[in-house]
Amino acid sequence: YFIRLCLEKLLLQCVLQSRTLSGADAINALRPFYFAVHPDFFGQHPKEREVNENSLKRLNGYLENLQKPGFRCFKPTQLTFYVREREPNASNVQESFSASGFRAVSFTLHTRDLLSTVLDILNSCSLSTEHVQSLNVNSQPHKEAKSTLYRPIKWDKTYYSFTGFKDPEEELEQAQRVETTLISWLDDNEASAVKKLKKSLPLRKELERLKFELLHQLQLSDIRWQRSWGIAHRCSQLHSLGRLVQQRPEVLKNVKGHTVVFTDRSGMSAAGHIMLGTMDVHHHWTKIFERLPNYYELQKRLLFLEDRISQLLGGIQVIYIEELQALLTLEEYYETLDAFYNRLRDSRLPFHPRSLRGLQMILESDRYTPSLHEFGHFTIPTVCDPATLQWFIFAKAQEARENLKRKEEMMIAEKELISTSTEKFSLDRLYKEPSVSSAQMIDCCKRLLEESLPYLHGMHLCISHFYSVLQDGDLCIPWNWK
Q1: How confident is the model over 405-426, as pLDDT tens digits?
Q2: Which stretches of 302-411 are assigned E, i.e. beta strand?
Q3: d(Cα 456, Cα 453) in Å, to the nearest integer?
Q4: Could you give the number of structural domains in the chain?
Q5: CA neighbor of 204 nearest in space, from 461, 428, 426
Q6: Which among 424, 403, 422 has a CA at the least distance from the CA of 414?
Q7: Tell me, what's the pLDDT at 144?
Q8: pLDDT digit string (tens) for 451-477?
Q9: Sheet-wide strand order for 259-263
Q10: pLDDT at position 360, please?
Q11: Residue 446 forms part of a structural domain
Q12: Which residue ranges in the chain fall short of pLDDT 70?
């Protein structure tokens, strides 16, 4: 009986092996998925973009592990993606719609081969799987293939008792029942994080040196990065800027006092920062630096336009918040302000002069109804009906002032808690992702201070929405950790 069971298992393994995918085939099969969730298509939606970017990193790590020979230690991995589709689809996975209308899809990966993983992902996001049959896979109908792949051998429990092998079904059920806790996760990942952090230390010192030299040489206010690139990538970008300084020092004479941001495209941002596209060559960067006088002139016109809008709306201040708004160029933001100003000027709303001084508002081109943010600023659509705008601002003015006051208190509390937590745990750095609010950060730090966590000594800790060890050794933990 035992020999017969072993032969059946061997036969099934042969069948499964004939239906495996190569790494390249898996990437080709997932192209529709990558297109639907790729962060670069979410430029107007920073929160959704960041979630997709982080989830893709974890998914790519999962796929890489699947291709490692002899790798058997798999933990169920939960992922969340915002999908570009606008209409909800029936699905067995957890779904919700964000404020911007994108579909949020959450699912857990626990498969142990590329083919079943690819099919799992495509089905979870309601994407077609027909093209998978054209790859180097047995061309059976998808439903039959899926049932074969997901139908485990129903071994009798005595088989595992006799052989000493672990029951995979029992292991999976146990892993799904046990919720990841901060302590258990740190136990499992501290060694890996310390190893990566030590490896990155020379590069971190090099990055600090390069940044200090360029800040001093160009008399810049700051150098920043829009995306969470690794240390090596950042060093490479600073080396490129350093070479340009040596080759064309005359074109950089107008950058004094400004902030340089490495991002996806070149130009000047709505916040007045110099953007250097990481995919652009020195020729493109040189053109941006040469055009700075023109940008400064446009910036003056933009500030004048903001002032005119403020006068029409009772003194409310028009602001641009990088962390909450899409990264716009100066030209794009000027066009947005100009269109909004023309609508206001024609409507002649009866706001009393200076009646709304002290209040703030931001403009959004992809919204249709006004809203009030927890930090006290109004979020106003550029196409908002003037009468609706007037009623909303009047109705929410007092609440907005209270929120602004609460924001100041919250920022002070957050700064103090970060400082206290950094000191208590001897952290080298404690920071948060932009998508984590101040309220969430405060709650997270308060609960951390109640714990004893010697694992964190000398580490870089990032407060996020998921658990992860970044490539340079930074520890990411969710703000609502258990």
Answers
A1: 999 899 999 999 999 999 999 9
A2: 317-318, 360-364, 371-372, 378-381
A3: 6
A4: 2
A5: 428
A6: 422
A7: 41
A8: 989 889 999 999 988 888 888 999 999
A9: 222-225, 259-263, 274-277, 267-268
A10: 94
A11: no
A12: 1-24, 40-44, 68-75, 85-101, 133-155, 157-179
188 and 43 housed in the same domain: no
In a domain, 4, yes or no: no
DSSP string over 122-146: HHHTT---GGGGGSSS----HHHHH
Asked if the structure places residue 459 within a domain, the reply is: no
Q: Which pLDDT belongs to residue 93?
A: 45
Cα 140 to its chain centre, rounded Å, is: 38
Is the domain of 231 the same as that of 119?
no
pLDDT of residue 123: 79
Same domain, 125 and 195: no
The answer as to whether 391 is a domain residue is yes
Whether 56 contacts 37, CB under 8 Å? yes
**What is the Cα–Cα distance from 316 to 363, expressed in whole angstroms?**
12
Query: Residue 354: its pLDDT value, please?
Result: 82
> Which pLDDT score is estimated for 212?
96
Q: What's the CA gap between 292 and 246, in Å, rounded?
A: 19
Query: Which one-letter DSSP state was computed for residue 329?
Result: B
Domain containing 44: what range?
Answer: 21-84+99-131
3-state secondary structure of 231: helix
Give 177: exposed, middle or buried? Use CB within 10 Å, 0-12, 13-18, 19+.
exposed
Residues 265 and 379 in one domain: yes
Chain-centroid distance, C-alpha 169? 33
- Residues sharing a CB contact under 8 Å with residue 300, sequence separation 6 or more, in sequence order: none
Q: Which two tokens stand for residue 12?
A: 């099934």
- Scanning the structure block, which residue is given the tokens 């009468």? 387
Q: Would you put residue 91 in left (φ > 0), alpha (ψ -120 to 50) or beta?
A: beta
The C-alpha atoms of residue 176 and residue 192 are separated, in whole angstroms, by: 23
In DSSP notation, 295-308 reads HHHHHHHHHHHHHH
What is the phi-psi region of residue 151: left when phi exceeds 0, alpha when psi lies from -120 to 50, beta otherwise?
A: beta
Tokens 């919250």 belong to which residue?
410
Same domain for 260 and 190: yes
**What pairs with residue 106 in β-bridges?**
80, 94
Residue 223's contacts (CB-CB under 8 Å, 6 or more residues apart) are: 211, 214, 215, 238, 259, 260, 261, 262
> Global pTM?
0.65
